[in-house]
Every structure is written in structure tokens, then in C-alpha cells.
Design a protein that fits this description.
- With 312 residues, the chain is mainly alpha-helical.
- Helices cover 79% and strands 0% of the residues.
- The protein is elongated and about 75 Å long.
- Helix 5 (82-95) crosses helix 7 (116-132), helix 12 packs antiparallel against helix 13 and helix 14 packs antiparallel against helix 15 (260-273).
- The model is unreliable at 1-22 and 40-48 (pLDDT under 50).
Length: 312
């Protein structure tokens, strides 16, 4: 290959002012083009939002019927989507239709006792029922174990992991979540619960953060995912990043259906630690509006008052 001519030098020497104007104009054109591409992408994403994303948006606005409908569609598209399945089941509890759904599943399993997916759904229904009643998920564990005997399945391992997590058997839970992720790299709840164990039990926020970030890659509009990501960043001392993730949680869960209230407390804690007392008080007061009888929030507001007095 011959030597390439130095076009940039030649052009600058020939007309420095012309090249400068041309470069500025070209830069403006590229910026306009980039803006148009970004706008087109936003419009495309809005028009092609997944039913699970639509379901989450409805769920966190307490629109239970719409949420259930979208999650049900998500399950039709991917019967082994653990996030869609769990949120569909929780939505039926809010709607008051869970017992009817449970009876239908029991009848279906009698008709086809080797239907693993029906067994898994029963496991998650019984798990949610135990959670609502503040009971141990013994029946759920039985259903998941029976489902496991029918063959390997990622969603079965996720169900077992969640049940073991609930009873405090974190070693077994981690093994189940690892198996689930090996079989299905898109199982959102496996990433979430593995991260929670690493963060809260193993004191490994850096390891936990990797799981939460992967979770958010799969479902960017998931409020609880942003909350757990914020918690890991907070534990790592990355306050600015944690604040951004807590704020994202609040924006997606303004009613405190999931972790929105906890996110406001997290924000208040960071502001209090940084001696930003006005911001801290506002965050705690916002949290108290969502949960007026929460003694932890009231204690935090008292701490702000004491810290301000001590400063004076």
C-alpha cells in the first residue's frame, strides 16, 4: 500500500477559516443526527415495550387488573419467566382472585400429574400465600421438590432457592440460584436473590452489585432492582451513584408499593451522613407519608433534629 496523503494538513493550510466553519457545521449536523436517532429509539422502545415492563408499570401504580393482564401475556410469551409469574400471582392476591386460580391449578395437576409447569405455579402460589399469612413456605417447598423430580428446570431451582431463602437456608438457596442461572441466563429473580444473599448475609456488596446490575440489564424498569443496586453501591461507599439509584427507585415506585419507601429512607440516611439536614428531613418526611406508622422513619427524623441542634 502506498503512502496516504495528509488531507487534514493540506486543507488546514489551504483555508484555515473555511475548514473551521466546515468543522463546526459538521459537528452541529452530527449532533442533530444523534438527537434524532435517540428520539427514534425512545419512540421505538415506547411502542414496543414488553408486557412484563407494562405489567411492572401498572403494578407499581396499584393498577392490579392491568398488571395481571400484562403479566399473564408475559407468561404466555415465556412460560418460564419467573418475574412475570411471581408478579402475576401477587397481582391475583391484590385482586382477590388467587383462591380461584389456586383451585384451577390443583384441578389441572390432578388431570395431568406430570405437568411440571403447573407444579411450579402451585409452588409459587403457595409460597405467596404463606408470605401473606406470615407462615413458613412448607407447602411451597413440597410443590417445588415434586416439580424437581420431573426433570431439570431453571424456574424450579429459582422457586426452591426463594423458598430456602425464606426459611434462612442460604447455603441451599445459593446453590439453587446458581443452578438456575446456569440453565437460564435471563432468570431475573435468581440474580436478585443471589445478590441479596451476597449483600446481606455474605457481606459482599461488590459481588452483589454485579448480580443487581445484570438484573437491571434484563429489566431496566424494575424498581426493586434499582433499590438493591443502590443498597450495594451505598454499602461500597459510592454515595453519588447510590443516590441516583435510590432516586430512580422512587421515580418508578412513587407509591411505595415495593421498595419505594425504603429508597427514601436510604436517601435520607445518605443525606444525614453528609450533614445535608434539610434534604435528609425531606426524604424521611416523604417516606413517612407513605408509611405513617413506621417507627424507624420517626426515629430517623428525630436523629436529624438532634444532629441539627448539635451543629448549632
Amino acid at each position: 500500500m502506498g503512502t496516504l496523503p495528509n488531507f487534514s494538513t493540506t486543507q488546514r493550510e489551504a483555508s484555515p477559516q473555511g475548514e473551521s466553519r466546515s468543522g463546526v457545521e459538521k459537528g452541529r449536523t452530527m449532533k442533530r443526527l444523534a438527537s434524532l436517532i435517540l428520539l427514534a429509539l425512545i419512540i421505538f422502545q415506547a411502542a414496543h415495550a414488553s408486557p412484563v415492563t407494562d405489567g411492572l408499570n401498572a403494578y407499581y401504580q396499584k393498577e392490579w387488573s392491568e398488571a395481571a393482564s400484562n403479566f399473564k401475556q408475559g407468561i404466555r410469551e415465556d412460560p418460564k419467566d419467573s418475574l412475570a409469574l411471581v408478579y402475576y400471582i401477587v397481582s391475583t392476591f391484590w385482586l382477590g382472585t388467587s383462591e380461584h386460580e389456586l383451585r384451577d391449578l390443583e384441578d389441572a395437576l390432578i388431570d395431568n400429574p406430570n405437568d411440571q409447569l403447573t407444579q411450579v405455579k402451585l409452588g409459587f402460589f403457595y409460597y405467596t400465600k404463606a408470605l401473606v399469612r406470615d407462615q413458613k413456605p412448607d407447602r411451597a417447598l413440597t410443590e417445588f421438590r415434586d416439580a424437581a423430580r420431573l426433570g431439570p428446570s431453571a424456574i424450579v431451582h429459582t422457586g426452591l432457592g426463594i423458598a430456602y431463602f425464606d426459611v434462612g437456608n442460604f447455603t441451599r438457596a445459593k446453590k439453587e440460584f446458581a443452578r438456575s442461572m446456569d440453565m437460564n441466563s435471563k432468570d431475573v429473580l435468581a440474580y436478585e436473590y443471589m445478590g441479596r444473599i451476597l449483600l446481606s448475609i455474605d457481606n459482599d456488596p461488590e459481588g452483589a452489585l454485579a448480580y443487581f446490575q445484570q438484573e437491571l440489564k434484563l429489566v431496566p424498569q424494575y424498581p426493586d432492582g434499582h433499590y438493591y443496586c443502590a443498597s450495594a453501591l451505598d454499602a461500597l461507599g459510592k454515595s453519588d451513584e447510590a443516590i441516583a439509584e435510590y432516586q430512580k427507585t422512587v421515580s418508578l415506585d412513587s407509591l411505595g408499593v415495593g421498595r419505594g419507601t425504603d429508597a427514601k429512607i436510604g436517601l435520607g440516611d445518605i443525606y444525614l451522613q453528609n450533614k445535608q439536614f434539610q434534604d435528609a428531613r425531606q426524604a424521611f418526611q416523604d417516606a413517612l407519608k407513605l408509611d405513617p406508622n413506621n417507627p424507624v422513619i420517626k426515629e430517623r427524623i428525630s436523629q436529624v433534629d438532634k444532629a441539627e441542634k448539635a451543629k448549632k
